[in-house]
Amino acid sequence: MASEAKRPKVDGGSTSEGSSGDPLENFLRWCEKVGLTLSDKVYLSREGTAAEYGMLASRDIEEGEVIFSIPRTAVLFQSTTKVKAVLEEGKTSLESVSGWVSLLMALMWEYTSPESYWGPYLSLWPDLKALDHPMFWSEQERERLLQGTGIPEAVDKDLANIGREYSDIVLPFIRLHPDLWDPEKHTLELYTSLVAFVMAYSFQEPLTDDEEDDEKEPNFPMMVPMADMLNHVSNHNAHLEFTLDFLKMVSVRRIRRGEEVFNTYGEMANWQLLHMYGFAEPYPSNSNDTADIPMSNVYKAGVEATKSKEDQRLLVDKWNLLCEMEMVGEKGAFIFGQTGVLTVTELYNTLKVLGMPAEEFEEWKENEGWEEVQEEEEEDEEKMSRALSMEALPQLAPAWRRLIQAAARFTLASYRSDLRADQGLLEDGEAHARLSSREWRALQVRYGQKVILHKLLELTQ
Ligand code: SAM
Fold this sequence. Notes:
By secondary structure, the protein is α+β, with helices and mostly antiparallel strands. 46% of the residues lie in helices and 9% in strands. The site of S-adenosylmethionine (SAM) has 16 residues, from helix 7.
């Protein structure tokens, strides 16, 4: 267990008594008041960190040490906000697709109320306009920099949902409670910024195995002071553990003095980091990076391989069956990571069905072989995963390789530039230095995806 300092340190040393105009010092005093304890081996800083605030080790930390511990009472969500009674009473009318509206209503109130209990915490981010997720870029900029990455489509969906949620749920609720919210102050603009804030700063408690088995809905998001000061890298050295009364940041390996304490926000590809958190890890450091091949591109690859009307009819039959089996869907994607495909069952069965000669397919369909596929799913997962690992791709049946090859080719054609152009930008020091922050982040996302897709082209030749 880490030893706990009485007064947490700021910027490697200075401590203070009494009130101060410094948001960080005010926050640390508040932490003490709410029972949040911090190891004396770390300090918060805006210097020497990956981005703005972050946590640095002032002494070596061993694996398994508790770096800080937050009582559940110091976590902000719909049951700990001042407006909890109103939110509880209006629970049904606040239900939404995202499941975030109650937290967002709470944040709108707490963020704009001078008397908020959470003020010293939320004052760390006085200007939400500093958030630079792609949802704040212009549509043209998203298309120019991110076409092909999947981000423009995800953002369009987010913006449509946010607009709908605000006008259909939030605004009517605001009008019902003019003593707490005001449409002039709690605008769609503020709501959208808070959505981005929740995307980048909130935590979701993972479901237990039993809850997963019971197919329980995911837990609602919550704001976790101190934990949300930590930056993320795929090669992280700490993670958040959830116990009955506390949330604890625990080191997962030794952290040397001077190193930044990095949390994990999950196994996030660069496109997900940029979409949800507004940043990307520099290529090639994100070991969780992935590239998506839209399922529709595998269908297109199937169409390209047909030679007759009969072949085309057979392809449509096969695709319809795959839809019925829930192996493919209109908007779905096969996901490829560094070592192989992550959507194993879906891709394996798709290739298997598309690669079947007509008679075999008819027989398999008649004998309801596809129902067995669904039952055997789990047992076969390992075998399928091995067959679709990057190193095994060259040994796949030629028809399967051709499908992956063509689908990767179609996917690469959906970007605005090719791999070489992006490689040029990365390797030409001067051009690289001239990139704006948005251009730089978009480049890391695009390039990582294209490298994976090119690897697929090579391995399926
Ligand atoms: N640095 C944040 C701050 O000062 O408010 C605290 C972490 S907050 C949970 C998440 C945000 O930190 C992200 O939206 C992103 O802006 C930034 N961030 C986290 N990890 C990062 C990294 N490795 N590189 C760049 N920015 C990062």
